[in-house]
Amino acid sequence: MLGPNTELNRLVLDKNGTRYHQIARAIRQAVLDGRIGAESRLPSASALAAELAVSRPCVQRAYRLLCAEGFAVARPRSGTRVTQVMPPGDISAKPRSGATSRYAARLQSLPLITPIGAPASARPTFDLLYGEPLVHAETFHSWRRNLSSAALRAGTAYPPTGGYLPLRRAIANYLSRRRGLSCDASDILVVGGTQQALTLVERVLLNSGDRVVVEDPRYPLATHSLLAHGAKVTSCRIDQEGLVVSELPRARIRLTFVTPSHQFPSGVVMTLGRRLQLLQWATRTGSWILEDDYDTEFHSGDKPLPTLRTLDLAGRVIYVGSFSKTLFPSLRLGYIVCPKAIRDDLFRAKLLDDLGSATTEQAALGAFINSGRYERHLRKSLKEIASRRRAIVKGLQGLEGRHIEIGPYQAGMHFVIWFLGLGFDRLDAFIKRAKSLGLGLHPIHPYYRFPPSRPGLLIGYAGLTVGQLRTAVQLFGRCLESQAR
Amino acid sequence: MLGPNTELNRLVLDKNGTRYHQIARAIRQAVLDGRIGAESRLPSASALAAELAVSRPCVQRAYRLLCAEGFAVARPRSGTRVTQVMPPGDISAKPRSGATSRYAARLQSLPLITPIGAPASARPTFDLLYGEPLVHAETFHSWRRNLSSAALRAGTAYPPTGGYLPLRRAIANYLSRRRGLSCDASDILVVGGTQQALTLVERVLLNSGDRVVVEDPRYPLATHSLLAHGAKVTSCRIDQEGLVVSELPRARIRLTFVTPSHQFPSGVVMTLGRRLQLLQWATRTGSWILEDDYDTEFHSGDKPLPTLRTLDLAGRVIYVGSFSKTLFPSLRLGYIVCPKAIRDDLFRAKLLDDLGSATTEQAALGAFINSGRYERHLRKSLKEIASRRRAIVKGLQGLEGRHIEIGPYQAGMHFVIWFLGLGFDRLDAFIKRAKSLGLGLHPIHPYYRFPPSRPGLLIGYAGLTVGQLRTAVQLFGRCLESQAR
Q1: CA A444 → CA A139, A397, A417, A449, B442, distances in Å?
Q2: Which chain B residue has its CA at the smallest distance from A150's CA?
Q3: Which of A29, A169, A299, A413 is most buried, judged by most C-beta within 10 A?
Q4: SS3 of B233, please?
């Protein structure tokens, strides 16, 4: 028995952290919720130690902590007593449930989303998952070995809000030199990837209820971000020339989110004519344009179409680039080429969002670009991606006409294939059968607001080698055969 | 003379990027804004080259680019002609000025803000600036040398939204073990510092117009973030026991932002009684509490008061910690100990904000904590900060009573001093005089919503050595003497 305070007989330790913290916490909670009254005497350290099967010094340490905090006082000869800490009143009422914001309510209404290419628990051996970029072991090792000296250059102070200046200069220089995009370092805002770029643009341009256009099919995390922000999202169809500008709404639109250089996920490259039409439409309706140029470095065509940003005479195009696809996704770095009119607002929004991105990786990236290693890496990647593309496309072309139709595949790291003889009713079984053979397939229809009439697959091929891709095609062929039978 | 198209006489190159991009851009713009009509013949490459004083191959390359883009066609014997690319219509109208969101309008109304401790251009030698943490060269070098292996562990895939699991475990373990804070890895959300923690909490809990309480004096970037978000911000006074809970509003409050373990910037430690009163008040008004524990590791007192999170029985305290002050600010990492009720919302908000924080530095930090180096670093820092604190406090105490009064200085890396004989009218001159001697002083009144009756200074001492601090005190004494005369 523990003596005067029988409540302590029921002390339950929560096994979290050190034993003495557990004891102190259990007593504290009993005081706070009124189970142990003010002025109660705590049992002797040896009695409680015996009760809880811990050492006496452990209980003594807990008592010392409670005394230091003001929960108890130890007096010679009269033991340790609980103080009158609690003014009358209850502190245990739960906060009103559901007492969250309209933003949170919208978040809750969205389907559960995971980033594209996020590691799943059990992935098939030959997974044609988009988002898995091509990573050169050599590049990655050279990258990581340079982090230490980058940290030295980056220093320990708070980062500059707009980004580490040598990186901003390197990006501006790269864009001017390689992409013909006229900008300078002061226009560049370094952000934590495309997702944060969109977040900042939403804040600066969109009130809740403002109308926004996205492509259909579309990039789910961008659409979800817009919906969660409270925008009214309208979809516009893609055909073989890109966004069908003639079907865009005539009402006032605040922002249009497009991926002209390689539409995600359809793979279509927007023609020059459509680009110009889109700019004209935007001029008429007053819309800003967010141009998400997520993987333009990996175009193999000989038609390097000018970006919307290059064609834009009015300063209404917000050009966003990222290093997630060209280097690796764990590096959370991207940039906005800011239109002058909203540059200061975007910088301030970044300041209030997270002060600025971490400096070390920015310094490493700046040096990587300036030393020419980035462009060497891109050339190598482009070559390797082209041979992977050839391998899978050539393999699939053997199946074309009879079973499938292949969408545009000239650019980027993915394309779409459409089933000719398979209905939506048999799609799940088909994918399941493929998985049992070690082949990962991913349907395209979840990317659509208005799903297509036939099922199709989003084929990401950058993460598999030529040999693996050949095996993947064989497995795919086998699935097609067995389902045709 | 250039022949048919005199418009090309007025081609102005913008000096941005390569010469051929400049030429192509200038022609493209002239086509887009109608200065060069469709079907116009471009001058021969040699003529334009002579006119622009560039090489002929350079002009030829620009023409090839324009042809590839579809802006021009080259026909044998008839030269290069502009195509009919532009449908009729104008694309040069500027977007409506001021066409930004209410958020941007609020941003614009805030004073220009820079992060605390951000590097100024010309800093005095002895700058008593808050925010400059103590950085051990040894710790920093050991940190940066471990980045390479951390990158290997972190890998190249997209980061997990909630944070790198070994780091989340390390933080939960550290908090349980060292701070007696009961939580596990699944409660921890890794974020890009306190600023992002606040951003996410605002989104999840606050609608525009919702009422929020902050302390007075207060941390400006937090208040600005709340104001920009659209919250109605009320200030509550601090006395020597911390937040004056009895003066808190009785109306419904959604969120209260407090720094109980070391009030920023006054330096006051909130008493146990006030902590409990605050929780009671929060229960009555339905307020959530954001507990910003930004520098609690550097308390030297023997009164380790329990955090509000520890005392909270209702799950209404959102505990936020950061590594900016304990390691270095360039590392943009902090964490939220999420209350269960809003955990999923906070995770989703993080996903939509930036997908997740970069993994490499998370992996480095996790290893740093798990290996015991973090706590060794803290012990060393605590000792060094204590000796710096003693040096400056002892020096200033020699001036106390006559010229100044020293505020609470037992915790953290800063304190406040108040002038006894100096009015606000002479403060600027005093600070200017100090600067001319190489001493950086920073007034406290800008941190107040309702400025105090006397001028005071916010003294940050962690960034200067004991020797430098002694010199700083001497210089300060000299300024006081000369102004008393």
Answers
A1: 32, 19, 9, 11, 58
A2: B144
A3: A413
A4: strand
Residue of B nearest to A220 (CA): B352
Give start and end residues of each alpha helix (H) in A356-426: 359-370, 373-397
Contact B270, B281 (CB under 8 A): no
The 10 Å CB-count burial string (b at 16+, else e) for A315-332 is: bbbbbbbbbbbbbbbbbb
Three-point CA angle B196, B207, A210, nearest 5°: 95
Give CA–CA dist B175/B179, Å, rounded. Answer: 5
Task: Please work out, in degrees rounded to the nearest 5, the angle formed at the alpha carbon of residue A334 by the alpha carbons of A331 and A340.
Answer: 160
Non-local (6+) Cβ contacts of B422 within 8 A are B403, B430, B455, B483
| Residue A231 CB burial class (10 angstroms; 0-12, 13-18, ≥19) | buried
Helical H runs in B256-358?
272-285, 308-311, 340-354
| Cis peptide, bond prior to residue B408, ω within 30 of zero | no
Q: Out of A75-89, B320-334, B466-480, pick the least confident.
A: A75-89
Distance CA A23, CA A51 (A): 12
- The answer to whether B313 contacts A115, with C-beta atoms less than 8 Å apart, is no
Structure tokens at A148: 């230490």
Q: How many helices (H) and strands (E) does chain B have?
A: 16, 15
If you average pLDDT over every residue of chain A, what do you get?
89
Query: Reduced to 3 states, what is the DSSP secondary structure of residue B214?
Result: strand
What residues 1-30 of chain A have any CB closer than 8 A to a CB of chain B? Answer: 14, 16-18, 21, 24-25, 28-29
Structure tokens belonging to residue A250 = 């005539």
Helical ranges in B355-419 per DSSP H:
359-370, 373-397
**For residue B229, which of B257, B250, B201, B253 has the smallest C-alpha distance?**
B201
Tokens of A367: 């040096």
A330: which chain B residues are within 8 Å (Cβ-Cβ)? Answer: 154-159, 358-360
d(CA B161, CA B246): 40
Residue A302 in 3-state DSSP?
A: coil
Phi and psi at A453, nearest 5°, equal -75, -25
Phi and psi at residue A378, to the nearest 5°? -65, -45
The answer to whether A206 contacts chain B (CB < 8 Å) is: yes
d(CA B323, CA B357): 14
Residue at A281: amino acid letter = W
pTM of the model: 0.92
Distance from CA of B17 to the nearest CA of A (A): 4
pLDDT of residue A5: 53
Q: How does pLDDT run across B204-214, given as a tens digit for each residue?
A: 999 999 999 99
CA distance B370 to B173: 9
Q: What are phi and psi of A306, to 5 degrees?
A: -65, 145
In contact, B97 and A341? CB cutoff 8 Å: yes
Contact, B122 vs B353, CB < 8 A?
no
Cβ–Cβ under 8 Å, residues A128 and A461: yes
**B313 with A32: Cβ contact below 8 A:** yes
- Provide the pLDDT for residue A89: 64
Residue A298 sits at φ, ψ, to 5 deg, of -105, 35
Looking at residue A20, its amino acid is Y
Contact between residue A359 and residue B358 where contact means Cβ atoms under 8 Å apart: no
- Compute the distance between CA of residue B124 and CA of residue A131 in angstroms, rounded to an integer: 49
- Other C-beta atoms lying within 10 Å of the C-beta of residue B97: 7
Amino acid at B134: L
For residue B446, list its beta bridge partners. none
| pLDDT digit string, tens, across residues B16-72 | 888 998 999 899 888 888 888 888 899 999 999 998 999 999 999 999 989 888 889
Residue B97 in this model has a pLDDT that exceeds 50: no
Best to test chain A binding among B28, B33, B100 (most A CBs inside 10 Å): B100
Q: What is the DSSP letter of A219?
A: -
